[in-house]
Design brief:
The complex is a heterodimer. Chain A is mainly α. Chain A is built from 16 helices and no strands. Chain A starts with a helix and ends with a helix. Among the domains of chain B are: 183 residues, MetI-like (MetI-like fold); 49 residues. Chain B is 72% helix and 1% strand. The chains are: A mainly alpha, B mainly alpha.
Chain lengths: 303, 404
């Protein structure tokens, strides 16, 4: 500590310490810990807080698994169903994005000329800076009942009646895939860019097929990028709120929408907190899984 | 050879499809902003109009579809977003910078912990950050009584700034870390040896070195804050930002005014991206020219200088620009020629819709008449009243006149 102050001077040291403490303690630690605490407490009106009823309880977690006490089902099929759907679809979206982006990232990193690379990257960044809500809105225009896709298919004669893409959730899945695709491309691109082109040529000279070269050389080299991109896409998809709000059909729920409902419409903050904790745990577990699976450090995952 | 050729064609096709997927929805959305119909679409094209940028219109079902110029919620939300983004920039850039500099000074075990802590907020879902901020500050406000703290704890703008700063600081942190990795610390040592104080070193050496990172992290922080929804929707409480206004609008029903807004944002992004690229190329050219100039001085040969006096070169991008301009002019003329623009066209479209409405009314009247005649046979005669309503020629006379 003394060395730290000596190195930076007292004024600058104070500034650093204040800024970092403010961030770590007041913005990161305390809010999360307080939310964790709240998730174990019953939902009480403000006046009763701190009273005899304010004891630690597992009600909210029990509610997530077994449902309310009045319901007849053994388990809370609705909420667990939403949760499983959300996680499953998030994994699916991640895999689709990975397959979809890999050739593009490889092309930009290894095959394109330098000026083309620059242009392509610029072109990739532009849609990324447009609000997620507006991008979802664009998808909604495409998939609406009288939207472009329906009209086109009707015109060609592939369809007789307009398909309700939104009720079928096709629009939602497309929107989710569309929303975070760039967070898959950039880590992949960064990882592939460092691959020595000589390795590819050596593999080719030694008679390796294109597929084999990719499987044995390119993919192992890009594993940090794959881990990083997958983590980002999964977490943002599982925690997405804007896209489901715009694109989900009235009878489909995303897990974040459930949290939103407990929080804002039912005014049950402690239950909303409990559900948030569940989402948080899943996200962190996924990150750890990815780190284990691809044997990368957390620093390589978040870049 | 043929296999590599087909592979190339496949790859080209794949890339075109990919970019079509990326840009297609945005382009179609932009085009719908200029269609005068109430529903954002392309194929039943009514008229080319700017109404969604100006005053909007009132639909036949009475729903008010405000255009951008008259939408007060949107204006207020925009200003709030701007204010929040500025607040986030002023907080998160110094925080990210401090954390990145301190990271270079801590070692071994502590360093890993410090780094993990700094990047943790990115791994939290946005909704979780929003909720935890609100929950904590509601409690603080509850304890704080009636003072300033209580007011702050219930102020959505303040909470949103804190919530967004939590994870946007990490973005800034990562940018600063990348820049500091290339920092030559002997500069600092030299300055200290020459008698500068630590504070002076910080202000005169480190800050100027970090200036590009400060700039880019400020831009990133601003944009990230401006377009954030997941955290904001929880922490904003009773206020409204641009994104929450858009979300409310989209949930209520889809209006082409949102397309118009998106079109403006897309244009701004495009202009920013192109000017950034232009600026960067300019700078690179300048650098290249300087280095060649240096080379001339070093080898002091006039022979090479002949190339330098190249006459003004027309950049190729001019042609692209001219081409787009030409297409625009021709397209505009076609629109005017085919009478797809202006009050006349809109009046025609409205009339068509009105007559459609009138047809339906007539059908209704006929139905009423049949019911009445049936009713007359049945001897009830109670449908007379309804018949009167539908039969009144003045009732719907002014219908469709909501437009102004």
């Amino acid at each position: 500590m003394g060395g730290f102050i000596k190195k930076n001077g007292s004024v600058v040291s104070t500034f650093f310490l204040v800024a970092i403490t403010f961030w770590f303690v007041f913005l990161i630690l305390i809010p999360q810990l307080y939310m964790l605490d709240l998730s174990f407490r019953p939902n009480l009106p403000p006046l009763l807080r701190g009273g005899p009823d304010d004891v630690y309880t597992l009600t909210h977690y029990k509610h997530f698994i077994f449902g309310s006490e009045t319901s007849k089902d053994t388990y809370n099929y609705v909420d667990i169903g939403v949760f499983v759907d959300t996680i499953g679809i998030a994994i699916l979206v991640t895999i689709i994005n990975l397959c979809f982006c890999y050739p593009i990232a490889f092309y930009i990193a290894k095959l394109a000329t330098p000026s083309a690379t620059r242009l392509l990257i610029l072109a990739l960044i532009i849609p990324f800076w447009i609000n997620e809500l507006l991008r979802s809105f664009a998808i909604r225009i495409l998939f609406a009942g009288e939207g472009v896709i329906n009209n086109l298919l009707l015109e060609i004669g592939l369809l007789d009646v307009a398909v309700n893409f939104i009720a079928l959730d096709i629009a939602l899945y497309t929107g989710l895939t569309y929303a975070y695709i760039l967070l898959m491309i950039f880590p992949l691109y960064n990882a592939l860019e460092t691959l020595d082109t000589n390795q590819l040529e050596a593999a080719k000279d030694l008679g390796s097929s294109t597929l084999r070269t990719h499987w044995r050389i390119v993919i192992p080299h890009a594993k940090a990028g794959i881990a990083s991109g997958s983590t980002m896409v999964f977490m943002l998809t599982a925690g997405a709120l804007a896209t489901p709000i715009v694109l989900s059909s009235p009878n489909t729920f995303w897990f974040t929408q459930l949290i939103y409902q407990w929080f804002n419409m039912n005014d049950n903050w402690s239950r909303g907190s409990a559900y948030s904790i569940i989402l948080l745990v899943v996200s962190v577990a996924f990150v750890l899984l990815m780190m284990r699976l691809f044997k990368v450090t957390i620093g390589e995952v978040v870049r | 050879m043929t296999s590599s050729r087909t592979l190339q064609i496949f790859l080209g096709l794949y890339i075109s499809i990919f970019f079509l997927y990326l840009f297609g929805p945005l382009i179609i959305m932009s085009v719908t902003a200029f269609n005068s119909a109430e529903f954002p679409s392309i194929s039943p094209w009514e008229c080319f109009s700017f109404r969604w940028f100006n005053e909007g219109k009132i639909a036949y079902d009475g729903q008010r579809l405000a255009g951008l110029a008259v939408d007060r919620d949107l204006h207020v939300g925009f200003l709030t977003s701007l204010f929040i983004a500025l607040g986030v920039v002023t907080l998160s850039v110094p925080i990210g910078m401090s954390a990145a500099i301190v990271l270079t000074q801590v070692h071994s075990k502590l360093r890993t912990l410090f780094y993990s802590m700094s990047i943790m907020p990115v791994l939290f879902p946005g909704v979780v950050i929003g909720i935890s901020t609100v929950v904590l500050w509601d409690r603080i406000a509850g304890i704080g009584g009636d003072g300033v703290i209580s007011d702050l704890g219930r102020n959505g703008i303040f909470l949103t700034i804190l919530g967004q700063t939590c994870f946007i600081s990490t973005y800034c942190f990562l940018i600063f870390v990348a820049r500091l990795q290339r920092f030559d610390s002997t500069q600092e040592e030299a300055a200290l040896d020459l008698g500068a104080s630590q504070t002076q070193v910080f202000i005169k050496i480190l800050i100027p070195y970090l200036m590009p990172a400060i700039g880019s992290s400020a831009v990133i922080a601003f944009l990230a804050s401006f377009e954030n929804y997941n955290t904001t929707v929880f922490s904003i409480l009773s206020e409204q930002t641009l994104t929450t206004v858009i979300a409310t609008k989209v949930r209520l029903g889809i209006s082409p005014a949102i397309s118009a807004l998106a079109f403006i944002i897309i244009c701004l992004t495009l202009v920013a991206a192109i000017s950034y690229e232009f600026f960067r190329r300019r700078q690179e050219q300048k650098k290249a020219r300087e280095s060649t100039a240096k080379m001339y001085i070093e080898i002091s040969s006039d022979r090479l200088k002949d190339d330098e006096q190249k006459a003004f070169v027309i950049p190729k991008s001019i042609f692209v620009f001219l081409f787009i301009l030409l297409i625009g002019i021709i397209g505009w003329q076609q629109i005017i020629k085919n009478n797809l623009y202006g009050a006349e066209c809109i009046a025609k479209a409205e009339n068509a819709k009105k007559s459609n409405f009138a047809d339906q009314l007539k059908l209704l009247q006929n139905n009423a008449a049949t019911i009445e005649s049936e009713g007359a046979e049945g001897g009830t005669g109670s449908t007379n009243e309804y018949n009167d309503i539908f039969g009144d020629p003045n009732l719907f006379k002014n219908f469709g006149g909501f437009d102004n």
